[in-house]
Amino acid sequence: MKKTILSWSFILFATLGFSQVLKPVKIDSLVTISLPANFTKKDTLGQQIYQGTASLGYIVVIRAENAANNKPLNKEKDLKKVFESFADGIRKQSRNGSIMNPRDTTIGKLEARVFTLRVDNSASTGEAPQLRQFILLYTQEATYTIEYFYPEARADLAKAELKEFTGSIKLAADLKRNDQYVSNAKGLSTPLKIALYGGAPLIIIIIVIAMRRKKRLAAEG
Length: 221
Prior knowledge:
Blueprint: H1 2-7, E1 22-26, E2 31-36, E3 40-44, E4 47-53, E5 58-65, H2 76-93, E6 97-107, E7 110-119, H3 122-125, E8 130-138, E9 142-151, H4 155-167, E10 170-171, H5 190-220
């Protein structure tokens, strides 16, 4: 899948500049994303690839079915490892690419990873540096790669369209966190930790003091 994603880096940006209104498109029954009216769709090797030229950037959305023998992710930290592995694989396969501003976010009830890949081949090819904005969504059934890329020189101009595109991602209401990893168990909250490890001993001490005081008063009486 990563090689497929990288192959779109060679799009001719001369095709950009024609106004394309983004319209909602159902990627499947769970995910809807707004795409340019001129988008095309390809089905290949268990992947559905949507691509189209927007006004200031190029959009690619890939839905890839996860292998049938994939073990379900157990915990949140396992999901984060998937995100990190994906971003690192993209960086390694992209010549002169570097990851910028990686962060976790939430779309609907799911966790997602957002990062920017800056590709600078200007020294070897003369191409202007490109910025590729990635959003990665992972469920037990499929992985969704959502990308918007454009020349770095257009970064300010592309902000509004990028915001419109990323803000258009809609998920089905029944998609929940356990569609990403099995366990919803969380560590103890800070107040609860204080109660258990700080407050409980204090309560025991108070009880002991009260019992001793009661015995002393009884003896004096």
